[in-house]
Design a protein that fits this description.
1198 residues; 6-stranded parallel beta sheet
């Protein structure tokens, strides 16, 4: 599903929801209003996870209870509700409300209890009872005592608050017993108890009793996270932090300090292991969430991150110095593998918005991707195979947004868990439990609405930046695809983290040049070298051959081997067609073939390629692009069939097929009959060839004519050879130790008894791939339309009648393009196919073949005339060159009319065939013919073929003539010749001289602004409408001003810097006034001076700056209204005399407002005053405003 279809579906769903909501409001407005309010409240609750209601599980439970209470109240008591039995029986309705609220309360407690009771997937054999020895019985007693006390505290039907109030002493005693068990057990027993108890549920049920002076929950966590922390192993510390996470750190103000204490008291490799184990629990409670989401204190977060950074630097120092600790670290690669999900791990099937890859079906795991992850994590040192007890370093960077809690992450983790299962054929699944860094709704919605990939790239980079701050001691490998913003994100990773970022592998799901952020020249300068690959064995080959290598040669072999297994495990239902399967197999085998060369060079056994299934059996008749034939063999590795092609004449194939069908209709072939017939035919043919076989003096030339001899003998005996559909139709005849195949296709015979001898036929053999072979289709002779009166010999046909006579290809006066430039047609000699033309750029007359002349027309009517001419002569059009290979093609560009002078080379002149995208990006040269430079030469313009084609196809290339009326205006103002093809009367020289081609708008010496800076008009050229502008804002090296020749559309009237019409300004003469208008053609600024009652006509350079108010204007201040009497430019100080009491106020610009500005705001009528003024004011009122110039400024305001 593409983006357009997805947006249409979404729009349809929204429209249907709105219509349904309106219908429900019309039927039941009260209950709908209540439900809509509750839904909005629910949206706020889900959308804002940072709010206080989410800080503790007790708060969430109360929210759901109150929500169910309000919902059931509206449902049971609303007047227009379908279940409003509470209006008729209030007691029954009240009971229903209570039961609904209590049911919601119990359900939320039950689901939360399941979450707290779910133990992590990190339980190891170190916690087994067999390793306890003599203390086994004591540990079992401790465990039974803790579980028994927990069952007595945890009441399923009674809330904990009520239970603690009812059974106060009993609950306090049981909580103290649990805490005492953790205090008195030794270190081994303590770690065993932490690993085998439901620690999260245990901490949740032990409460801090504020009214009973028993802070038991805080006491238990203090015991585990502070007092007995040195006795805890790395695994136990991870479990304690996980329990704090699922309980929500914000529920206890000291929880963040406990987490900080655990992490800051863990060092070296143990710290790296505790971080990795936290990310490998199989849920969204990862280290990234703990540091950046759960911990709210910025001070604590920075303390933890600084500790990570110090320990990481210390570990890297040990590696560089080669200490004993570094030698113990050699068994690991110490790298994190970050990967995308859609179109990298799973194929999206082209479903929007997941991805664009359609090479596999949706949700298919790419062959070899899991093995590639494992080998990158395994590295080049350490064990050869992945140890079962090791935790991996795989994390997924997904663009899918995070929704409420783990709603979206839970689906991804369920997919990852399925991938960890080992296949029945011995295929290894995912080697570890990965972590997941999701996107957000903001970037995802922006991508869906605007197709902007930059927010997705930025979000993935932000996630990577967070991840690197947690794991500074690791190298990071990024595996992604080029379908969305991953490549741009990887470039930002490389730029900002050059030491931590290792390399990037990009799965190619679209052409590389279409990649978002693709910039090979920029990458080359910064030495950023991403690896684009199609199959994962190809990526593994690059990882094994780079310097330094990332995986072993044996690891490359394992990736290729498992890629073949993964490919074979894809079911037939997941393939759209056999062609798709064959193409993917060919890609995989090509990569494995390259990898085998490297493996053999390094002494490693080669990998067997993916075997293709033989769809067409030997002896079966098939159809191929090269004709019909018979299958003679099959190569499963290359999917190539050995086909014996039937290149006999078509009529012979048709007769043979009809004869076979007739024989099958008379006597259907059974299995035994077919066997007897083949044996009988073999005996007969052998008897007839006995004389030739017994001749010991046969030469190679006689061997080549063996088929012809057999045909002659069969013809003399008037017997017909049948072509069977089995492989027995070919016979092997041994002559002097050689073997010659004689096929039934090697002879052509007839059964009509004629003495006509057929020509010998030698069958052809071809190796054809399976995707180009289809089922056999019977041959047919071409059908001839007998009703069409076509002469058998076209050169005897008479001249066409006048009724069907075609118009001439060229008319006198037609503009045309030739290999020698633009020309005008003078005469067309149809009998000789010669066109007499007169060239426009140089005085010459040419006699050219009609195939070398192409008529160029402008306008809609001329295009229709050209289309009619092209339809009348397909032969000449097919022979002549067309755009972009033709020289002289006229194109209307935004810079004037141009002709192609440097076209593309012909396809046969280049070494390889260009695809459509590469062809459109090729550069061609254009020469502008509508105007000239100062040296009387035509300027050149270089552009891509795509841009030139857009200019060529557009109705009008001028930016000022857009729209339907302008198009018709262009047609009406065109010369009569260009519209109807007949010559029009040319104007005389004197008339042409009287009317200039262009009119000057900007006067000489006008101050203007251009794309090259501010300048001054010094000259105007009427023949082409160009202005000579002297650029005054900068100078050349010799101190002179630069000169530019610009069009009118490239010039703007210059307004003084920072000034605006209608606002006060300060002039260079020291006077203040109001800039009323600017005359664009002269650049004159009209400044009204209220204090002097005069008007000043100034250039832009004579205005110093814009100010808040002019002298003589009224102003509003905090002390009342007043009049500005003086302005001190040096101190930017205004002197205002207040009305009523005559005091002087010295203030800055921000301390007062102009009365004129305030009146303008009041007259605006809330931003729609112009609309009311237009419809309800009189024409005389409008006329009082004054006439407006081209810059929309008032010129008669004063």
């Amino acid at each position: 599903m593409d983006r357009v279809l997805a947006m249409l579906v979404l729009l349809g769903v929204l429209v249907n929801l709105v219509l349904l909501l309106l219908a429900l409001f019309a039927m039941a407005p009260i209950i709908c209003s209540c439900l809509l309010s509750l839904l909005y409240t629910l949206y706020l609750f889900i959308a804002y996870e940072e709010s206080g209601v989410h800080h503790a599980q007790e708060y969430e439970n109360r929210f759901w209870t109150i929500f169910a209470l309000l919902f059931s109240t509206a449902l049971f008591f609303a007047q227009d509700s379908p279940l409003n039995f509470g209006r008729y029986s209030p007691s029954l309705g009240f009971f229903g409300v209570l039961m609904s609220s209590y049911a919601m309360h119990l359900w939320d407690r039950y689901t939360h209890r399941l979450t707290l009771s779910r133990q992590t997937k990190l339980r190891r054999s170190s916690f087994a009872l067999g390793s306890m020895g003599e203390i086994k019985v004591t540990v079992e007693e401790y465990l039974d005592q803790i579980n028994g006390s927990l069952r007595e505290i945890d009441q399923l039907l009674i809330p904990s608050t009520i239970n603690n109030w009812i059974n106060q002493r009993f609950v306090l005693r049981k909580e103290k017993e649990i805490i005492s068990v953790f205090w008195k057990c030794d270190a081994v027993a303590l770690n065993f108890l932490i690993g085998h108890t439901k620690l999260g549920l245990l901490i949740y049920k032990i409460k801090d009793h504020r009214n009973f002076a028993g802070q038991h929950r805080s006491e238990l966590i203090e015991l585990l996270a502070v007092d007995r922390l040195p006795a805890l192993t790395v695994m136990s510390r991870v479990i304690v932090m996980h329990a704090l996470q699922i309980l929500k750190l914000r529920a206890n103000p000291r929880a963040e300090h406990w987490v900080r204490n655990i992490l800051l008291n863990t060092h070296g490799d143990d710290l790296s292991e505790i971080k990795t184990l936290t990310d490998s629990k199989g849920d969204y409670f990862c280290m990234n969430k703990l540091i950046y989401d759960d911990i709210r204190s910025e001070t604590i977060r920075q303390d933890i991150l600084n500790h990570f950074l110090r320990e990481g630097a210390l570990q890297l120092s040990h590696m560089q110095m080669g200490t004993k600790r570094a030698q113990r670290r050699q068994h690991m690669a110490w790298r994190k593998i970050l990967s995308d999900v859609d179109d990298t791990l799973f194929c999206s099937g082209g479903h929007y918005p997941a991805g664009i890859d359609k090479r596999f079906a949706k949700k298919v795991v790419y062959p070899g991707v899991l093995a590639f992850y494992r080998e990158l994590d395994l590295g080049t040192s350490g064990p050869e195979e992945w140890p079962e007890n090791r935790v991996g370093n795989l994390v997924f960077l997904s663009a899918r947004p995070h929704v409420y809690k783990d709603v979206s992450e839970k689906q991804n983790f369920a997919k990852f868990e399925k991938l960890r299962v080992t296949g029945e054929d011995g295929r290894k699944g995912m080697h570890t439990v990965p972590s997941l860094l999701p996107g957000d709704i903001a970037s995802g919605s922006q991508y869906m609405l605007t197709s902007d990939l930059e927010p997705l790239a930025r979000k993935k980079f932000d996630n990577f930046k967070r991840y690197v701050s947690i794991y500074p001691e690791y190298q990071h490998i990024f595996v992604c695809d080029n379908g969305q913003g991953d490549v741009k994100a990887s470039e930002m990773m490389f730029d900002n983290f050059p030491y931590e970022f290792g390399s990037v592998y990009i799965h190619k799901v679209q052409p590389v040049q279409n990649t978002h952020g693709y910039a090979p020249e920029r990458w080359r300068k910064k030495e950023f070298a991403p690896c684009f690959f199609t199959t994962y064995p190809e990526a593994a080959l690059h990882a094994a051959t780079r310097n330094p290598p990332l995986i072993r040669a044996s690891g490359l072999r394992r990736v290729c081997h498992e890629a073949v297994k993964d490919f074979n495990s894809i079911t037939e239902k997941q393939w759209q067609s056999n062609t798709q399967k064959s193409e993917r197999r060919a890609e995989l085998n090509q990569a494995i073939w390259k990898a085998n060369h490297f493996l053999e060079e390094n002494g490693v056994d080669a990998v067997e390629m993916a075997q293709a299934e033989q769809l067409f059996q030997d002896g079966e008749r098939v159809s191929t692009p090269y004709g019909r034939g018979i299958i003679r063999g099959f190569d499963p590795e290359t999917d190539l069939y050995d086909v014996e092609l039937d290149w006999r004449p078509l009529d012979v194939q048709v007769d043979d097929h009809l004869k076979r069908v007739k024989e099958e209709a008379i006597r259907p072939r059974q299995a035994n009959d077919r066997k007897q017939t083949s044996q009988l035919e073999t005996v007969v043919e052998t008897d007839e060839a006995d004389d030739d076989e017994n001749d010991a003096g046969l030469t190679s030339e006689k061997m080549e004519t063996l088929a012809l001899d057999a045909e002659i003998k069969n013809e003399n005996s008037k017997s017909t050879l049948s072509i069977t559909e089995t492989a027995d139709t070919s016979e092997a005849k041994s002559i002097d130790g050689a073997t010659t195949e004689v096929s039934s296709l090697s002879s052509i015979s007839t059964d009509d008894g004629s003495s006509k001898r057929n020509r010998p036929f030698c069958p052809a053999r071809a190796k054809i791939t399976g995707r180009q072979i289809s089922k056999f289709t019977p041959p047919r002779l071409p059908e001839v339309d007998k009703q069409k009166s076509t002469a058998y010999f076209s050169f005897f046909a008479g001249s066409p009648s006048k009724k069907g006579q075609l118009p001439p290809l060229f008319l006198e006066g037609d503009k045309c393009s030739t290999p020698y430039g633009v020309a005008t047609v003078l005469e067309y000699r149809a009998t000789d196919k010669i066109v007499v033309v007169e060239f426009s750029k140089w005085k010459a007359r040419g006699y050219l073949n009609e195939t070398d002349v192409k008529v160029t027309k402008e306008g809609i009517l001329s295009s229709l005339s050209l289309f009619r001419r092209q339809g009348s002569t397909s032969e000449s059009t097919s022979k002549q060159l067309e755009f972009p290979y033709a020289t002289g093609t006229l194109i209307n560009t935004p810079y004037g009319e141009a002709e192609v002078y440097k076209p593309l080379p012909l396809p046969k002149q280049i070494s390889r065939q260009l695809d459509e995208t590469e062809l459109l990006n090729q550069i061609i040269g254009l020469r502008l013919v509508s105007w000239r430079l100062a040296d009387e030469s035509n300027p050149s313009l270089h552009c891509t073929v795509k841009t030139a084609q857009e200019w060529k196809d557009s109705k009008s290339s001028k930016s000022s003539s857009d729209g339907l009326l302008s198009t018709f205006g262009t047609l009406l103002t065109m010369p009569f010749t260009s519209r109807f093809g007949t010559p029009a009367k040319r104007a005389t020289t004197t008339e042409a001289a009287e009317i200039p081609k262009f009119r000057q708008y900007y006067n000489d010496a006008t101050k203007v602004s251009t794309a090259y800076g501010n300048g001054e008009i010094s000259e105007f050229r009427e023949e082409d409408g160009f202005y000579k502008v002297s650029i005054t804002s900068w100078t050349l090296a010799n101190g002179t001003c630069a000169t530019a020749w610009l069009r009118e559309v490239d010039i703007r009237c210059r307004i003084a810097d920072g000034c605006q019409e209608g606002y006060p300004v300060l002039t260079c003469m020291g006077l203040t006034g109001i800039l009323e208008s600017v005359q664009p053609s002269t650049g004159v600024h009209l400044v009204a001076v209220p204090s002097a009652g005069m008007a000043m006509y100034l250039q832009a350079d004579a205005i110093a700056k814009r100010i808040k108010g002019a002298v003589g204007e009224d102003a509003f201040t905090s002390y009342g209204e007043g009049t500005i009497e003086k302005y001190d430019a040096a101190r930017d100080m205004y002197v205002i005399r207040l009305k009523g009491w005559g005091a002087l106020l010295y203030c800055k610009a921000e301390k007062f407002d102009r009365v004129r500005d305030s009146s303008r705001d009041r007259d605006a009528l809330s931003s729609v005053g112009w609309l009311f003024g237009y419809f309800f004011s009189s024409r005389s009122d409008i006329g009082d405003v004054g006439t407006r110039t081209r810059s929309n400024s008032v010129t008669s305001a004063t």
